[in-house]
Amino acid sequence: MLTAWQSLPQYQVYGFVQYSRVIGMIALEGQTAGEARILAVTVKPRLQGRGIGKRLVVETFLSLNLMTLDARTLEELLGFYQKLGFEVIDTSARDDGQLVYQCHLTQQALYAAYTHEYSAGAVLFSQRGAERLYVLVTERSGNTGLPKGHVESGETQEQTALREIYEETGLHARLLPGFGGQIVYPQGRGMLKHFTYFLAEYDARQTPVSGEDVIAQALPYEQALQKLSFADVRKVLRDAETFLNQIRL
Questions:
Q1: Nearest residue to 121 (alpha-carbon basis) of 194, 179, 225, 195
Q2: CATH topology match: 2-112 vs 115-247
Q3: Which long-range contacts (CB under 8 A, 24 or more apart) does 38-42 make?
Q4: Taking burial as the number of CB atoms within 10 A of a residue's CB, which of 30, 147, 229, 242 is the most buried?
Q5: What pTM did the predictor assign?
Q6: Beta-sheet pairing, 191-202 with 173-186
Q7: Residue 218, SS3 per DSSP
């Protein structure tokens, strides 16, 4: 999980967190208009060789919605970047004679290196007087997120979201316009998952019913925010709460 570590006007540092421990870090310069440059990538010595550095770069690219990412490297690390899809666009020599490679990664090149899987779901809520409840689902793995599932052949993403809401929570809902987006993240080796999310409302007279593979529950905003397992999904919930507060003043 990519977590903001420190932010300065020009430089940003992110930590890769696993079981509440930082196991890798990446430092960036820029992020202007979807562009950034890697200053350093580091992984704890005992965990090197497990693909964590690669995942750190990929998650950084996807989480920050970058279109391009640059890196300068010596020959000993050139293979690391080339395996990620970076292209060498320039070479220069240092005073000691070592070559420095300027590498460039585009979204197109990154996506071409992966297979892709698509899912859709929604921030699902009901309004009960002054109280707003959000429905979350907890999987067998223990991770808690939003109701969602795979887009089946012939379905639109909107149809998938409504079908998955019903299958996972037993609720009939309607999608609200004006809110939505997509999260892209690596899943296992060689796959990128694309999760398109919407905003959906259900009648407060209904009660969530857990599905075969998930436990569904309706929670107030603050409790829902704390229960969600992943930072990017928590941001989606924050954005949805802000959106609803603005349109329902």
A1: 195
A2: no
A3: 38/69, 38/70, 38/71, 39/11
A4: 147
A5: 0.83
A6: antiparallel
A7: strand
Which residues pair with residue 119 across a beta bridge? 150, 195
The tokens for 169 are 């929570």
Of 3.40.630.30, 3.40.50.620, 1.25.40.10, 2.60.40.10, the CATH number of 2-112 is 3.40.630.30
CA distance 174 to 124: 9
Tokens of 88: 């060498």
Residue ranges of the domains in the chain?
A: 2-112, 115-247
What distance in Å separates the CA atoms of residue 161 and residue 170, rounded to the nearest whole number? 13
The tokens of 38 are what? 């890697």
Q: What's the angle, vertex CA 49, arms to CA 46 and CA 50, rounded to 5?
A: 90
Q: Return d(Cα 69, Cα 14) in angstroms, integer.
A: 15
pLDDT in tens, 190-242: 899 999 999 999 999 999 999 788 999 999 999 999 999 988 999 999 999 99
Residue 199, number of CB atoms within 10 A of its CB: 22
User: Which CATH class for the 115-247 domain?
Assistant: alpha beta
